[in-house]
Amino acid sequence: MFWENPELDEVDTFSLEILLRKNPETELGFDYLGKREGSGYNFIEGVLFSISHKDSIVTYYPEKNISRMNQSSMYLTNSPIRLLKNGPWNYLGDTAIDGKTYSEFLWIEMDTTIMEKKVLLKNHLFINPSNELADFYSRRLYHDGKKNQFIDVYYSSYEFDELGEELVYEIPQGYVSKVWGQKDPEAAQVLSKGDLAHDFQLADENGGLVRLSDFRGKKVLLDFSMINCGWCKIALEQFNKPDYQFAENIVPLYVNPVDSKEKMDKYRSKVAIPFPVLINAEEIGKAYGVSGYPTFFLIDENGKVEDVVVGFIDEEILKWKKGVV
């Protein structure tokens, strides 16, 4: 998988392996073992769990979250077995890539306008007509008619066997098991309205220190974002518009728990962030229970969480403007 990061002019490369076995007793109709360097993601007999070999941790997901987690799993969303069930796919004709002939299919997943930006998301699937297997998949995102991000996936090493024994995963010795969302220092739940916001001291982009408690008496908007997040960038575009000014009693802060200072410096040279950027915030992200981006926390004058918004929602973004709050 080649995952473009257009803001940095970089491409991340992932190599994934997935083993599937039919199981009509589960909602997916199959069990699977997903593996990549340093981690794994498995769904066996209705139980979903991930493995971090770096931390020696096995994380189990509550039953109520399994369907959503499977829907967003990188192992499934880009796998032929899931793609072939998406659609509708339309046959475009035969095409040649690197001297090989393929049957090309198109599925337009999104064609809409979001905050005055035209968003077009096209999926191209290339089937090898000699064996009817997917060889190549391309997910192509355009903003206002211009290329934004392409994700290209190449498939290889197909193997098909008669239904064998049930899938089993042996947890390595010494690994610790945890429940996803369990409220502890390592896996906190997302802070809720009324919770006391965790104080922190983080370095900004210029090396200065910013402490949350220094803003007592004002509201603070924490924008938890990361570089490789399209909705995070769209939110920044709204904040950068000439007619967008935050309410006078709101202090906005950009908090990045994921990316290094070096990457953020490169990102900021291309993308304007109109308020202080706080880096090396991995522990703060955990403390606030952030697992998706962007996530916004509005902290009131007394240091308590006044509002929480997970994901980009234009109506929520607008309510922090001057003259609205």
Automatic annotation (TrEMBL):
Keywords attached to this entry: Cytochrome c-type biogenesis, Disulfide bond, Redox-active center
InterPro entries, sorted: AhpC/TSA (IPR000866), Thioredoxin-like_sf (IPR036249), Thioredoxin_domain (IPR013766), Thioredoxin_ResA/DsbE_sf (IPR050553)
Domain Thioredoxin stretches: 191-325
Gene3D superfamilies: Glutaredoxin
Main localization (coarse): other
Localization per record: Cell envelope
Signal peptide range in chain numbering: none
Designated name of the protein: Thioredoxin domain-containing protein
Organism for this UniProt entry: Algoriphagus jejuensis
